[in-house]
Amino acid sequence: MKIKAIIAQLAAATFVLAATAAHAATDAGVPALRITAPNGESSVLIGSAHVPIKGLLQPDASVFEGARRYVIEHLGVPQSGDQGSGKELGPWARSLTREELATYLQRALCAGVAPEEAFANLLRPSSQKANQLAYTPCGWMAVLNRDSVLSNEKPAGIPLGFLEDDAVVEATRQSVPSQLTDLSFRWALAHDPAEVLTGIGNALNQGDYEALRGMVDASIGNPQNAQAFDRIMVDGRNAAWMPRLRRFLDEGHAVIVVGAMHLPGENGLIQKLSNDGYRVERIALPSRAE
Description:
By secondary structure, the chain is α/β, with parallel strands linked by helices. The protein has one domain. 47% of the residues lie in helices and 12% in strands. The protein has a six-stranded mixed sheet, sandwiched between helices. It is globular and about 55 Å long.
C-alpha cells in the first residue's frame, strides 16, 4: 500500500476517533451518524431541532478536531421577498384569533423579542420566524439551540459549507399551502411548548429520529396534511441536497448538521446515502459539560 494512502487512512481514523472515543468518559453521548464515502473518507452527520430545548445533550467542541469543513443547511439571511408587505398579515396568519395572537406575543416576550418585532413576523409570507417564537417556553431564554452551540464551538479556521441557497429555501417555504402553515402554527399556540419540546429533545437524545418525525408530523393536523408538508419541506429538499452533500462527504472530514426530520424514512438522508453506496453508522459523540 502506498504511503500517501496509509497516511490518508490514518487521518480519517483520527478524525472519527476524536468524534467518538471521548463519550466513554461520560454517562451519555450525543447520538449522531458516521458517514463513510465509497472512497473511504469519513464525516459526522448530526441531527438538530433548530430550536432551543432544555435538557438536550449538546456535542462537545472536540467534534471539530480534525474537521475540514462545517456544513449547515443554509445561512439563513433574509431575502428581499421575505420581508412581507408591511401592511397585511401573511395568508397563514389571517385566521388567528385574539387569544392566539396574545399567546404568540407572550411567547415572543419569553424569547426576549419585542411585540413590534414579533408582530412584523406575522407579515412575512412564510411562518418560519413566527413558528420559532411560538415554540418558546417561558424561562428558556438562556437555552441555545444545537445549531448555535455548534456554530459557537466551531474553530474560526474551519470553513462553512451550505446544502442550499437562502433564496431557494425561502421560496420552498412559501410554496407550502397556507392552510398547512396556518394549522401547524395554531397547533403550536394551542400546546405547551415545554412539553412538546421536551418530547422532541428526548427523542433526539435517544437518536430516535423516526419518533421525532412522528411528533412533528402530528403538529400538521392529520396524516394527509403531514404528508403534503413533508413532501415539500423535507423530501423535496433532501433530494435537492444530495449533489452538494455527496461532494462534502467525498471530500471527507466534515461536520454536517441538518434538521433531524431529514434523516429517517424511505426518502430520508440515511436511506438515500445508503442507496448511493455510503456506509451509515450510528455513533455517540462526547457531550458538552454544562
